[in-house]
Design a protein that fits this description.
By secondary structure, the protein is an alpha/beta fold. It is 21% helix and 20% strand. It is globular, with a radius of gyration of 18 Å.
Length: 329
């Protein structure tokens, strides 16, 4: 079993460091980018605190105990150094993809989502098979923080791609309800004793720098979900500010370089399911971190997600992680 509570890392982790390395180095794939054990070593802390670039705050502010962690989700198979336009450019949805036909939502919906790009999904020929695989895998990893009380959050719709501009908020809300509500197809108990509350639209931006490289900015006391064109190939980034193991705020940025959808696509080649990605990002905000996508690809917290795949419900590992942190009602 990986990533048990005993391996909880310092609140400042090496994920930001890993991103930096990936962003400036060879375009290796990130199929297994961030084994958590690697982030638990003592070397992680100085590396992370030394990471700030122009426009970013120090990861640690001496004296007030505020830590910040950046977690990055990549598309499965994406090259970290390559421009992501290939994944989200002008190629029409469905071109070059495997059109799965008009399989309706329901039992076979997961199988209808078109091209699978990763071996991680080999077991997902049907939704039932996916559920079983998701329910057998109990691996999880904890980030070292939790939400105390209710996570209040805001949404900044500015820059949302037209394809999802009217439906994105619902998908984001549905994702956080899926997480705290312990939505699962494994017969596991629900909901968790965790709270969230949407506080409305905001013009505040997410404190995630997009200039020379992606980095967390200065915490402003508001948790914001926002759209930005990130320079990196990240699908989405979550910055979580914590103090003494409790979340102060979390900002989630969704990368407008990619194509997004909010309803199941009968023809899908290179688009990503917003609710699936956001369920993952909310996982970070509530204290979960990555598991290996090659070994635990059915879990929400796998660190990569293939285009066109849907992982909106918690796997057994995701559930155990949340249950460990919050318990069930
Ligand atoms: Zn992540």
């Amino acid at each position: 079993m990986r990533g048990r509570a005993g391996q909880v890392p310092p609140a400042v982790c090496a994920l930001s460091t890993a991103l930096v390395v990936l962003a400036v180095s060879v375009p290796s794939t990130v199929a297994e980018p961030l084994p958590r054990a690697a982030a638990t070593g003592s070397a992680a802390r100085p590396a992370a605190t030394g990471a700030p670039a122009a426009g970013t705050a120090p990861a640690d502010v001496p004296g007030d105990g505020l830590n910040v962690t950046m977690d990055v989700l990549y598309a499965t198979g994406s090259a970290a150094g390559a421009p992501p336009e290939a994944a989200g450019g002008t190629a029409g949805e469905g071109t070059g993809g495997t059109a799965a036909g008009a399989v309706p939502d329901g039992a076979a919906a997961n199988a209808a989502e078109g091209t699978r790009t990763a071996a991680a999904n080999a077991a997902q020929g049907t939704r039932a098979a996916a559920s079983r695989a998701q329910c057998r895998d109990t691996a999880y990893a904890l980030a070292g923080w939790r939400v105390k009380g209710t996570a209040d959050w805001y949404y900044n719709p500015s820059g949302a791609p037209a394809a999802v501009s009217r439906t994105a908020l619902a998908a984001i809300g549905s994702a956080v309800r899926s997480l705290v509500g312990a939505s699962n197809e494994c017969g596991l108990p629900a909901p968790f004793k965790a709270g969230q509350r949407y506080r409305g639209a905001t013009k505040r931006t997410a404190a995630v720098s997009t200039s020379s490289r992606t980095a967390c900015g200065t915490e402003d006391g508001h948790s914001v979900v926002a759209w930005k064109r990130l320079g990196s190939t990240a699908l989405a980034v979550t910055c979580t500010w914590t103090r003494s193991g409790q979340v102060v705020s979390s900002d989630i940025v969704i990368n407008t370089r990619y194509r997004w959808h909010t309803t199941r696509q009968s023809r899908c080649a290179s688009s990503f399911d917003l609710a699936s990605v956001l369920t993952h990002e909310w996982g970070h905000a509530f204290g979960l971190t990555h598991v290996s996508p090659s070994q635990h690809g059915t879990q929400v917290m796998a660190s990569t997600i293939p285009a066109c795949s849907s992982v909106r419900t918690l796997g057994a590992g995701d559930h155990r992680a949340m249950r460990t942190l919050y318990g069930v009602r």
